[in-house]
Amino acid sequence: MNDYKLIACDLDGTLMASDLTLSKENHDAMKKIAELGVLIVPATGRTICEMREVFDLPEIRYVIYSNGAAVFDKKTGKSIILGLEGDTLGFVFDTVLKYDTFVVIHKDGKTYADKKKASELQKYHVSVNVEYLVNEYCTLVDDFEEQLPSRDVESVVVCFSNGEDVDACRKILSSNPDLRMAEAWDYNLEIFFKDAGKGSALKILAQKLNMELDNVISIGDSDNDRQMTVMSGLGLVTENGCDSLKEIADKVICSNDEHVMRYVKNHYFS
Q1: Whose CA, among 8, 91, 181, 263, lies 20 to 30 Å from 256?
Q2: How far apart are CA 101 and CA 157, in angstroms?
Q3: What is the pLDDT of residue 87?
Q4: Alpha carbons 169 and 29: distance in angstroms, whole number
Q5: Which residues contact 146 (CB under 8 A, 6 or more apart)?
Q6: pTM of the entire predicted model
Q7: How far is residue 240's CA from residue 209's CA, in Å, rounded to a whole number?
Q8: How many CB atoms lie within 10 A of CB 216?
Q9: CA atoms within 13 A on the CB side of 257
Q10: In the beta sheet, which residues pair with residue 7?
């Protein structure tokens, strides 16, 4: 038996199949892994309200959400937040709203977006996943720009109508040392506090559990999984994952439609 004690697993493009469901094969594997005393921790760009498919599973106690801006303990009901606020948050909003963008704000475990722009998502090249999350979970706000929060924002997800604007906006945001960014797909920037990130949150959780990161397996598929892939004892990437993540991962495994948790159970916990 190996020494792995925790599996940090991305959701979209990883644990979830392409139809955005959790397969029976994955859930069965999660049950068997949990019976061995191994913690299974979703580590996702989604926030709490968007994780209906996995959040209530008894196998899940801890959740890393909003791209590592927060860690939630279901047993205690408490979160550790590494959020955006004050001048830094104001700088983010001032910058991204100069462009033709659709902005989703993650705050207090919920999501908020502009009601008017939500009716024209195709213009902003949103991924199928994001369209689903907006339609299913997002609170749509009238007069969105007049009601922007000033603190405790977990992350800001920005979808652009123009690809050139992504590069221009990224360049401006990069001038602020208090920010980190990731890209989940083309025409997208995900913005969070410099100390946040899936890897940072994973480190915080490991310290809370008195666990070494060498005892952690991470599984991901995109740029926002890079930090935890590097920091984990074993960093896995799905076959459908991006090339840049495959270059740094320890191993490329099956695709998200081939039951990644079953793969991990069979190869590392049998």
Answers
A1: 181
A2: 10
A3: 96
A4: 42
A5: none
A6: 0.88
A7: 31
A8: 25
A9: 3
A10: 40, 217
Q: In this predicted model, what pLDDT tens digit does every residue of 113-165 receive, in sequence order?
A: 999 999 999 999 998 888 999 999 999 999 999 999 999 999 999 999 999 99
Give the number of other Cβ atoms within 10 Å of residue 23's Cβ.
19
Q: Could you identify the residue written with the tokens 């913005």?
A: 191
Rg for the chain, CA atoms, rounded: 18
Of 145, 72, 142, 76, which is closest to residue 108 (Cα–Cα)? 72
pLDDT, residue 172, reads 98
Tokens of 93: 């909003």
**Spans of the chain, pLDDT less than 50:** none
Secondary structure class of 200 (helix, strand, coil)? helix
Sheet with 153-160: strands ordered across: 139-141, 110-114, 101-107, 153-160, 188-193, 179-182
Which residues pair with residue 189 across a beta bridge?
158
pLDDT in the model for residue 186: 85
Q: Which two tokens stand for residue 168?
A: 């221009």
- What is the pLDDT, as a whole number, of residue 128? 84
Confidence (pLDDT) at 196 = 93
d(CA 231, CA 264): 18
Q: In angstroms, rounded to a whole number, what is the distance separating the alpha carbons of residues 18 and 4?
A: 27
Quick check: helix, strand or coil at residue 65? strand
| pLDDT at residue 1 in the model | 56
- Beta-strand pair 251-252/234-237: parallel
